[in-house]
Amino acid sequence: MAYITWKSTFEIGFSEIDEQHKIYINLLNELHEAQSKGTSQHVIKEALANFLDYTHYHFDTEEKLFKQYDYPLAEEHLEEHSYFIDKVKKFQLNSQKNDLLLSLKTIDFLKDWTINHILGTDQQFSDFIRLRELGEIN
Ligand SMILES: [Fe+2]
């Protein structure tokens, strides 16, 4: 069974972001699989690098949308993104430096942060777009 199973409650109602979130969850599942199977350090590093690359790509997509929609909570949202990028980079650096395998605790942290972020901060952004499109906010 997958580490994280995609649920409809993860959908924020903005299809471009929802599609990216599905890919994102898959990358987390791959990372977890590499870690739990005790795969070689090289494979785990590659999975972590893929995860970091996609994190940049995905956050960029969201950040362009903030500009496009003149999102008033962009700054707070950006802070969450940079906090997470810093964390992932730190994990990457530590695993390179000490040649340690990524711990399950670390992967659980990535999972918990991601799900909380999708359900909270990303949902809030999608709600804003919906209200704006309905003409309820300017
Ligand atoms: Fe986000």
Topology:
Layout: H1 15-36, H2 41-68, H3 74-98, H4 104-133
Helix pairs in contact: 1-2, 1-4, 2-3, 3-4
Residues 62, 77, 81, 117, 121-122 line the site of fe (ii) ion.
Characterize the structure shown.
This protein is mainly alpha-helical and 138 residues long. The chain has one domain: Four Helix Bundle (Hemerythrin (Met), subunit A). It has helices at 15-36, 41-68, 74-98, 104-133. Helix 3 packs antiparallel against helix 4. The longest helix is centred in the C-terminal third of the chain and has 30 residues, at 104-133. The model has no long low-confidence stretch (mean pLDDT 92). Bound molecules: fe (ii) ion.
In short:
The protein is an all-alpha fold. The chain has four helices and no strands.
Distance from N terminus to C terminus (CA atoms, Å) equals 45 Å
Instruction: Give the CATH superfamily.
Output: Hemerythrin-like
Query: In the CATH classification, which architecture applies?
Result: Up-down Bundle
**Biggest beta-sheet profile:** none
Helix proportion: over 70%
Beta-strand segment tally: 0
**Low-pLDDT regions:** none
Question: What count of domains describes the coordinates?
Answer: 1
